[in-house]
Specification:
The protein contains 12 helices and 8 strands. The protein is an alpha/beta fold and about 280 residues long. The longest helix has 17 residues. It is elongated. Bound molecules: 3-methyl-2-oxobutanoic acid.
Length: about 280
């Protein structure tokens, strides 16, 4: 049985921290799931860490559905959340419903995430009414990077802090089952977390959120072009992969790979016959 949104909400009430990670492909999703992560986000961060875009803005619905399918195949137990890409939920409520339904029907996800507070409340309400669980996302919302003027901590001035608190309340009221708080000062996240009955999931939002999310490529040390302050590298796979590839190159060049161990034998008489006939 897959983890449900009810179980996730109960974790907050039991004061049990909620670990969450992104995944974008079958193999990684399988490992993350087997390790016991209850929530997996197929983040639109895949635009940067998988597809090499400069931001998440170019990511399309087709790309998101493609990766969501792979993650759903790999992870059997975790609740899978599909991240709605830029402009897939802003244009109209019917558009948001149509695109969210694609994540559930075609992608096989159990929930969707969308960025923004009050501005997306109507969409959240309709999605939840139609039976689609929604995760909110406020603070540094990468799809609004041009409006925010860069990857900056949000909520350091009183107006911004009040707006974040109000957005969090509006999202809870609209029916989100949890809210991502990204790059918000730790004391503000603590306050938001205390004020809400639903779980907060932090990234760069301090230790007092109900859960934490990391981009898998950051925490494995795979994506090294830009390492945010809030990312902790639990492994340095980029270095290990480069070392393995260098080793492979030198073994191929020096003829020490492959050996008989990696080769297939053939019946000697058949070989003799082939040689004679050719
Ligand atoms: O796309 C993503 O990976 C995200 C997380 C950073 C929350 O939105």
């Amino acid at each position: 049985m897959r983890v449900t949104i009810t179980e996730i909400k109960e974790m907050k009430h039991r004061k049990e921290k909620i670990p969450m990670l992104t995944a974008y492909d079958y193999v990684t999703a399988r490992m993350v799931d087997e390790a016991g992560v209850p929530l997996i986000l197929v983040g639109d961060s895949l635009g940067m860490v998988i597809l090499g875009y400069e931001s998440t803005i170019p990511v399309t619905m087709e790309e998101m559905i493609h990766h969501t399918k792979a993650v759903v195949k790999g992870a059997k137990k975790a609740l899978i959340i599909g991240d709605m890409p830029f402009m897939s939920y802003h244009i109209s409520v019917p558009d948001a419903l149509h695109n969210a339904a694609r994540f559930i029907q075609e992608g096989g996800a159990q929930a969707v995430k969308l960025e923004g507070g009050e501005v997306v409340a109507e969409q959240v309400r309709r999605l939840v009414d139609c039976g689609i669980p929604v995760m909110g996302h406020i603070g540094l919302t990468p799809q609004s990077i041009h409006q925010l003027g860069g990857f900056k901590v949000q909520g350091r001035v009183v107006g911004e802090a009040k707006k974040l608190l109000s957005d969090a309340r509006i999202l809870e009221e609209a029916g989100t089952f949890a809210i991502v708080l990204e790059c918000i000062p730790a004391p503000l996240s603590r306050l938001i977390t205390q004020k809400l009955a639903i779980p907060t999931i932090g990234i760069g939002a301090g230790p007092d959120c109900d859960g934490q999310i990391q981009v898998i490529s950051d925490m494995l040390g795979l994506y090294t072009e830009f390492v945010p302050k809030h990312a902790k590298q639990y492994a340095r796979l980029a270095g290990e992969i480069k070392a393995a590839v260098s080793n492979y190159i030198s073994e191929v060049k020096s003829r020490s790979f492959p050996t008989t161990e990696q080769s297939y034998a053939m019946d000697e008489s058949l070989l003799k016959q082939l040689k004679a006939e050719s």
